[in-house]
Write a structure and sequence with these properties.
The chain contains seven helices and no strands.
Length: about 150
């Protein structure tokens, strides 16, 4: 786990690229494949369900990392595994602040209307997935169900 954590830090803050690297999705998933491969399935499946229920693409996309903390706590009941996942999340979210701030600046600059189609397109997931959530997510279905018909 220490090796995986340092691999994540090296991926996110590489020395030879002036400490500008990726966000760390691949190293986290690679480490989790070795540590507990079905935890990935459970945490990401739960994040997909929560994202559908809330109608938010961000919950679907990024909720699995946070839910892995709780999964490690329940499954391993060990401070080292939970600590690894907490530190991996800290490194992941710290390296994501650069992308988040530029994204928020783009929204303020262009005064864009934010919907899930825009969010999924901005996160390089394609616009179709966000369009599906906008039209068929649980909140959208509730709005359609309880919309007053003239």
């Amino acid at each position: 786990m220490v090796t995986a954590l340092f691999g994540l830090v090296g991926h996110n803050y590489p020395l030879y690229y002036r400490f500008v690297g990726g966000r760390g999705d691949s190293p986290i998933l690679g480490a989790l494949l070795v540590i507990n491969w079905f935890g990935i399935l459970i945490a990401n499946g739960a994040a997909m369900i929560l994202g559908y229920l809330t109608g938010k693409v961000l919950v679907m996309r990024l909720g699995g990392h946070i839910l892995c903390i709780f999964w490690f706590w329940i499954y391993f009941n060990d401070i080292y595994h939970v600590g690894f996942m907490v530190l991996a999340n800290v490194v992941f979210w710290a390296s994501s602040t650069r992308d988040l701030s530029s994204f928020l600046g783009m929204i303020k600059e262009k005064d864009l209307v934010i919907n899930e189609e825009f969010m999924s397109k901005a996160m390089l997931m394609g616009s179709g997935f966000g369009r599906f959530i906008d039209n068929y997510g649980f909140p959208a279905l509730l709005r359609k169900l309880f919309r007053k018909q003239p």
